[in-house]
């Protein structure tokens, strides 16, 4: 290994094998695709549209990803091909999702062996190759990345490139599927033809797609020609368990359908995603629920309270749990918490939506770091979810004790929101509108609400109720009353027992006294036993007998203080034990 030096000090280098190792952080292929989507979504690129396709180039299955964002300069592309260089900053309040400067590398290399990137920015057009096969073939000891910057002249007819990029161009033409400059030019032009608006953008092509042990690509392109799905074989390998029937099972569609996953990828979608030519119907997940209620989480480690939206899944009662976002991006979906983990109906059908910007992300963004903060958050979410579930049930039972559980009813979202195809703003629609019946291309001017009927009008604040308190948990009042009732009952029982014990003690004393009296009379030589009044003796024995009945009944009562049924018996015995007068 040749040592590179800087000021006489050796530089650390990366072995090409690292590319594969680095990609293994994504255990799930969609998380790798999401990295590429995030890059286009982030404010430095700020794309409005993102196209995902499967194509065949020179007989090879390829995945292509195209955005109409700002495009990359030579320097930006070199940074994207390097490790840990992330200088993304928030723009107009939009926070970048990428923070580690690793998304493109780990994501693209998880999907396939090789990638080529075409990009058109305002300044120049660039082509770069990020390829494991290439590095292997040339026997590279370090990761080298051929990049060429072009200047397109005379209506893009000629390509001019700098002399220093000559070696890069030669390698790209030799080791990529594109063998001539003209072919590269065609691909650069394809960026513009895909994007209806704007002249800048980036096109990523990934080939040598990852295959399963049986030689098939891990994606199923056949099942649905407008979707990219994870094959059952791959699903089972990832989850280490056989996959139940998809149509009827509790497996959320987002786990195996890219289209379903992309529809919930962002808490508030601001970019259109088009998969295999068909637009993904994005949704505002927190508005798509029924019986929505807002609660708040106040962790000690954050200064402000964090809103949580609870509601019922309107599509399937078997898909429930917490949807956890981080800076607008979905990290964990349908995470079951608290009572939902028990094998009963508690929390069935309930969805919680929370944006946890205060938690740390794992590198692959598939998970949060399992810290104390994370565990506390999950515990708290479990408690709050159960409270919501109890409240809905309580209210429903109050209205109609014979009503069927909410999860088993047909539900519609509480609110309807539509996204304008042109300005991508979200508009609230009047109640009663069925969003599934809206036209494929919906625009602001179709909005029935005149106040928001134009693309130049700002969005209405979605979270205008953020300063409101949490919903009222009325079931708790009922629970408190119930508790008080029980407490009062317990006290009454205790008093009864104490009274009986006292009566018993009195009886015992009386019996003792009677015994003593009897003994005195027996011991006295003057007294004849025949003179002892028979009735008095009999009365004493009867009393002694009856007091023992009281004793045994009392011990029964003491054993089960809550059992009120034994109490009337005691009082009846008590009346029996009263000395006959
Ligand atoms: Zn609009």
Structure description:
There is one protein chain. The protein is an alpha+beta fold. The chain folds into three domains: 10-210, Heat Shock Protein 90, CATH 3.30.565; 282-474, no CATH class; 483-520 and 532-577. The chain has 13 helices and 20 strands. It has helices spanning 18-23, 29-41, 74-81, 103-111, 132-137, 166-175, 181-194, 232-239, 258-264, 372-399, 474-523, 534-559, 566-577, and strands at residues 5-6, 9-10, 49-57, 60-67, 112-120, 125-131, 147-153, 158-161, 201-209, 219-220, 229-230, 272-275, 278-279, 290-297, 306-312, 321-326, 329-335, 350-355, 416-419, 426-429. It has a nine-stranded mixed beta sheet with strand order 8-7-6-5-9-4-3-12-13, sandwiched between helices. Strands 14-15-18-16-17 form a five-stranded mixed beta sheet, covered by helices on one side. The protein has a two-stranded antiparallel ribbon with strand order 1-2. Residues 527-537 and 539-581 have low confidence and may be disordered. The chain binds zinc ion (ZN). The site of zinc ion (ZN) has 7 residues, from loops. The site of zinc ion has 7 residues, from loops.
Give the topology, please.
Layout: E1 5-6, E2 9-10, H1 18-23, H2 29-41, E3 49-57, E4 60-67, H3 74-81, H4 103-111, E5 112-120, E6 125-131, H5 132-137, E7 147-153, E8 158-161, H6 166-175, H7 181-194, E9 201-209, E10 219-220, E11 229-230, H8 232-239, H9 258-264, E12 272-275, E13 278-279, E14 290-297, E15 306-312, E16 321-326, E17 329-335, E18 350-355, H10 372-399, E19 416-419, E20 426-429, H11 474-523, H12 534-559, H13 566-577
Parallel strand pairs: 3-12, 16-18
Antiparallel strand pairs: 1-2, 3-4, 4-9, 5-6, 5-9, 6-7, 7-8, 10-11, 12-13, 14-15, 15-18, 16-17, 19-20
Helix pairs in contact: 2-4, 11-12, 12-13
The structure holds zinc ion.
Zinc ion is lined by residues 420, 422-423, 425, 443-444, 455.
